[in-house]
Specification:
Chain A is mainly α. Chain A has helices spanning 7-23, 25-45, 57-63, 66-99, 102-113, 120-131, 136-143, 157-181, 185-193, 198-209, 211-225, 230-235, 243-252, 257-294. Chain B is an all-alpha fold and 263 residues long. Classes of the chains: A mainly alpha (295), B mainly alpha (263).
């Protein structure tokens, strides 16, 4: 940093800094008004009765209800399921894209990104058309004689999971693909020349070097899916009830603002916990890498 | 990357057929809707036995759908008009301040994109209810603007890094005030990025559904809210027509942005 000796110049620099700071005030103000204030309001509302008096009754009610805990389990099942399938489908896809010629890879990436740019409602509708009892997939399955009865694919956990994987896969793919594309091809050549099989090269060179990307992708999947609302609401058909759906139902069916707020805070705490776990894991990974290079 | 393994044909074929399946999985729900939207039947038939434009006629002939479309377009335009200038100012501020201050501002501005939509929606609903503003266009607008600001910043921040600040220095030393420097130098030079940011902010608002579902109502219901409600109740082929139009519009918009950025 340069030391400004002249007091007049220093005052000038300070004034300029204040001016630049003020440029971001309008944006900060509106974020405070429409994002931070609402979160604070949820916290406040969670301690109020319908009459507006202070209470901890909402917490007692929500935390002692079995529905809350089953919603928590459903939320985690959906998130973990989505994550597992994204890793299984996305990692090989990223590997193929990273090994393709750049022109081909860019074209395929554009197709992968198409769903990302399509409205979630359009996609959910598409899945309903495909997965319903009288939908296209069941028509194809029963028509070809593969199954005698139509499979229950929509309006349940399976349908919700399919919709969520479809939403998250492009977002998971992006960091993994970026990490794999950055791997130095000479490393693979070196491992081939030293006798590693393709499987060994993937397991011992490519996957460890793309671990960072897989990690970021996983974190993204978790943070997004934990509050998913549209997909379970439509493809779950009332039978899949994660926290987000319980919040909506508590609010619109029972008009119970206090309990809905407690559920909201539960969701926020869950997100913070998972976020901290990921950060701790990242720190651990970084330390292990240092140890490995030291050894 | 795998050219060191040229004779592993089987592995390559397996990998690429797996990829083809995953790609089909990704594209299928968007594509399947298109032929259905031209079906003449009330039922889900694939492929349709007869084709017609009746679902498009239903959409454009319905007062409710048209009101929702109008609301969504107005909302998208307003969102872009508010979010892009605010985002530009914030990006200039972050670019010039640098260091911890910039990171803090960025962190605050990114909060809305990390917090689950359902929480923003119910929180905003509570705040607006206290001010008796639930169901107004204003309520949805502020919700959409906070979601669009991070999107605008993602486009504008890198553009400002490439910007040559000596030009502003020169203009300032010749007596231009900041408003003049921003309007006369920064805005014209960043116009392509600003156009992209505007389009992305518009699309963010057009696509947003959760805040709309909770906060918009009656006359101010948005297109996604109405689509959500009719998806929950029955499978209405009108949605296929809307979906097809939507996909075409978004693909064209994205093509414009990417082609512009390349040229």
């Amino acid at each position: 940093m340069t030391v400004i000796a002249d007091p007049a110049l220093a005052a000038d620099a300070r004034r300029e800094r204040r001016f630049f700071l003020s440029l971001s005030l309008p944006a900060l103000f509106i974020v405070g008004l429409a994002a931070i204030l609402p979160i604070l309001w949820i916290i406040r509302q969670s301690f109020l009765t319908t009459g507006g008096e202070y209470t901890v009754g909402n917490y007692e009610k929500v935390l002692s209800s079995g529905l809350t805990w089953s919603a928590l389990v459903t939320t985690l099942e959906l998130s973990l399921g989505t994550l597992a399938i994204c890793i299984l489908l996305g990692t090989p896809l990223a590997l193929a894209l990273a090994s393709a010629r750049p022109k081909v890879a860019n074209l395929l990436m554009a197709f992968v990104m198409l769903p990302l740019w399509t409205s979630i409602l359009v996609r959910t509708y598409g899945w309903l058309v495909l997965l319903r009892r009288d939908g296209l997939i069941n028509a194809a399955l029963t028509g070809s004689g593969l199954t005698a009865e139509p499979l229950p694919l929509a309006y349940n956990f399976t349908g919700t999971l399919i919709g969520m994987v479809h939403y998250m896969l492009p977002l998971f793919l992006l960091p993994v693909y970026a990490a794999m594309r950055d791997i130095d091809a000479n490393l693979i050549r070196a491992s081939a020349s030293m006798g590693a099989t393709l499987g060994q090269a993937i397991r011992m060179v490519i996957l460890p070097l793309s671990a960072g990307g897989i990690f970021s992708g996983s974190m993204m999947v978790f943070i997004y899916t934990i509050g998913f609302f549209i997909t379970p609401a439509v493809l779950g058909g009332g039978k899949v009830n994660p926290l987000s759906i319980r919040i909506e139902r508590t609010l619109s069916t029972f008009q119970d603002w206090g309990s809905a707020s407690v559920l909201g805070i539960l969701l926020l705490v869950l997100m913070a916990l998972i976020g901290m776990m990921f950060l701790a894991a990242r720190r651990l990974m970084a330390r292990n890498n240092v140890d490995a290079t030291d050894a | 990357m795998l050219e060191a393994y040229p004779d592993n044909r089987l592995a390559r074929i397996l990998l690429w057929s797996f990829c083809a399946l995953v790609m089909i999985f990704l594209m299928l729900p968007t594509l399947v809707v298109v032929p259905l939207s031209f079906s003449a039947s009330n039922l889900l038939e694939f492929p349709p036995h007869a084709y017609s434009l009746r679902w498009y006629e239903t959409f454009f002939g319905s007062a409710t759908w048209m009101a929702a479309l109008r609301t969504s377009l107005i909302l998208g335009t307003l969102t872009a008009t508010v979010a892009v200038p605010l985002g530009l100012l914030a990006c200039i501020s972050m670019n010039r301040l640098g260091g911890k201050a910039a990171l803090t501002i960025q962190g605050v501005l990114l909060t809305p994109s990390i917090v689950p939509g359902i929480l923003l929606a119910i929180g905003l609903f509570f705040v607006l209810a206290a001010q008796r503003l639930v169901g107004t266009l204003f309520g949805v607008l502020v919700g959409h603007v906070v979601l669009a600001i991070p999107v605008a910043c993602i486009v504008l921040l890198p553009a400002l890094i490439r910007f040559d600040w000596n030009q502003v220095q020169a203009a300032r030393s010749l007596g231009a005030n900041w408003a003049k420097a921003i309007g006369g130098i920064i805005v014209p030079q960043l116009r392509i990025s600003l156009l992209s940011a505007t389009l992305m902010a518009f699309l963010t608002s057009l696509d947003e559904s959760v805040i709309s579902i909770f906060v918009a109502s009656g006359q101010n219901s948005t297109l996604p809210k109405l689509m959500f409600l009719s998806l929950r109740d029955q499978i209405d082929p009108t949605i296929a027509a809307i979906s097809t139009l939507w996909t075409v519009i978004v693909v064209v918009a994205v093509l414009i942005v990417t082609l512009r950025q390349k040229s």
